[in-house]
Write a structure and sequence with these properties.
The protein is of the alpha+beta class. The chain is 32% helix and 27% strand. Strand 22 and strand 23 form a beta hairpin. Helix 2 packs across helix 11 and helix 5 packs parallel to helix 6. The chain binds adenosine-5'-triphosphate.
């Protein structure tokens, strides 16, 4: 059975994900993606872009900056409202998010308490009423709850006296709203149309954790879909379905996924409908993807604060209106964690040993083809094949150690095909292809390699 410890160990041993700044004792919950991990991450981003931008007739792309005019965050409500309820344990000095503290306790005890929409005072009362203990020391001696703004603040400018406070963006969406007018004009599009973006976001989370599930630095893949208000609900349904099919098409197990609509109390003040796609991680259900009908809140706010016209015009009546926005927003790392957890498998072999493998979809697999010469004498022949396939796929030649160990390593990083060059290859011009999932082997003529793999890795 999969545990988070097993997954973290596998990621570390196989060059997928390492703890950040390890040489200096680390920096809490920062992670680096190793040679294998970066390929996986790039594949996740490429597949999202392909599905949500490139293949969509009504969507264009954008890459906006991380640093934005500080007024943006006032208009968006992040300066005043983007905060979490922070509570400290007076006894052990540990710090928690009050809502999570209650939710975790209630989940453990099997009791149901709705914390959505509760004020800080309401949360504090509930902690006392249920006599919820500190998860670290077991005591019950908490401070009152304070608002903790999640935005990272820094300064722009060269001299100390002259600096302007500035924020690292906590979401990529605002960069899209700011460019609504310029994109609409330059790309000659009017609603319904969408803008997709992939980029880093930063949140000073109180309790980062669960490996890469919640971190302070992460990447988001966001689509802001501008629509006439009357069509917003239809597009909301469309994007909910599209996000779910994206996951199912990439082989994620249906039973591990659910679509959860927010209750009215849970909805953000700007949203009339929000659904989260959740995944059943080893630590429980967790949000992967949030799809929200954000109404005209964002463009309206930027119109008010900037004084600029962000209206769209109805093509038939020419009437002006402020578009609604439907936003599917997902984190790259959370998605990646889900793909890893879902693909992890342990299989008992006939000889009694256990094979660990990642049954990743071939399009997600970081290394597509492992090339293995049976003996070092065959390395130059294998190298020739590597040179042929490397411009097409991320392939890796491994000629060190026993063939069994090499297969094991490729299984553990989810390589769907291993290609073995043996002593017969020179005579019959064929190589052996081994399938990761079934371990079946076939002989394939060398001149059919490109067409064989083109079929296997077709999007
Ligand atoms: P949560 O309730 O887990 O804090 P959220 O509802 O604040 O998430 P959104 O603001 O809707 O999240 O962000 C959209 C997506 O961005 C999330 O569904 C998630 O995939 C990702 N995301 C948000 N915060 C983080 C984080 N701290 N670390 C990694 N991914 C994140």
């Amino acid at each position: 059975m999969l545990t988070m410890d097993k997954l973290v160990a596998l990621c570390r041993n196989r060059g997928i994900i390492f703890a950040g700044s390890e040489l200096y004792g680390g920096l809490a919950n920062t992670w680096d993606y190793g040679p294998v991990g970066v390929e996986l991450k790039n594949n996740v981003k490429r597949l999202w872009w392909n599905r949500f931008v490139q293949s969509q007739p009504l969507v264009v792309g954008l890459d906006s900056s991380i640093l934005l005019n500080p007024q943006v965050w006032e208009a968006s409500g992040h300066v005043g409202g983007f905060s979490d309820p922070l509570i400290d344990c007076r006894q052990c000095k540990n710090r928690f998010r009050a809502d999570n503290l209650i939710e975790d306790y209630c989940a453990e005890k099997g009791i149901s308490r709705d914390v959505a929409g509760l004020s800080n005072e309401g949360l504090r009362e509930l902690i006392d009423k249920e006599n919820i203990p500190c998860p670290s020391c077991g005591g019950h001696n908490f401070t009152s709850i304070r608002k903790f703004n999640l935005m990272f603040q820094t300064h722009q400018g060269v001299t100390d006296e002259n600096t302007t406070p500035i924020y690292l963006r906590p979401e990529t969406a605002q960069g899209i709203f700011l460019n609504f007018r310029t994109i609409s004009r330059s790309a000659r599009v009017s609603p319904p149309f969408g803008v997709g973006q992939i980029g880093k976001s930063f949140r000073n989370e109180i309790t980062p954790g669960n490996f890469i599930f919640r971190t302070r630095e992460f990447e988001q893949m966001e689509l802001e879909f501008f629509t006439p208000p009357a069509e917003a609900n239809t597009w909301y349904q469309y994007w909910c379905e599209e996000c779910m099919s994206f996951l199912l098409d990439l082989g994620v197990k249906k039973d591990n996924l659910r679509m959860r609509a927010h209750t009215p109390e849970e909805l953000s003040h700007y949203s009339v409908a929000t659904s989260d796609i959740e995944y059943l991680f080893p630590f429980g259900w967790g949000e992967i993807w949030g799809i929200a009908n954000r109404t005209d809140y964002d463009l309206k706010a930027h119109m008010e604060y900037s004084g600029k016209d962000l209206f769209a015009a109805d093509p038939v009546t020419n009437e002006k209106y402020i578009p609604y926005v439907v936003e599917p927003s997902v984190g790259v790392e959370r998605l990646l964690l889900m793909f890893l957890a879902d693909a992890y498998d342990e299989e008992e072999l006939e000889d009694g040993s256990t094979r660990v493998l990642l049954r990743l979809h071939p399009l997600l697999a970081p290394v597509k083809i492992g090339i293995l010469p049976l003996s070092k004498k065959l390395t130059s022949q294998a190298e020739e094949i590597r040179r042929r396939l490397a411009p097409l796929y991320n392939v890796e030649l491994d000629d060190r150690g026993s063939i069994g160990k090499r297969y094991r390593r490729f299984d553990e990083i989810g390589t769907p095909y291993c290609l073995t060059v043996d002593f017969q290859t020179e005579e019959d011009g064929c190589v052996t292809i081994r399938d990761r999932d079934t371990m079946e082997q076939i002989r394939l003529p060398l001149d059919e390699l490109e067409s064989y793999f083109a079929e296997k890795f077709r999007i």
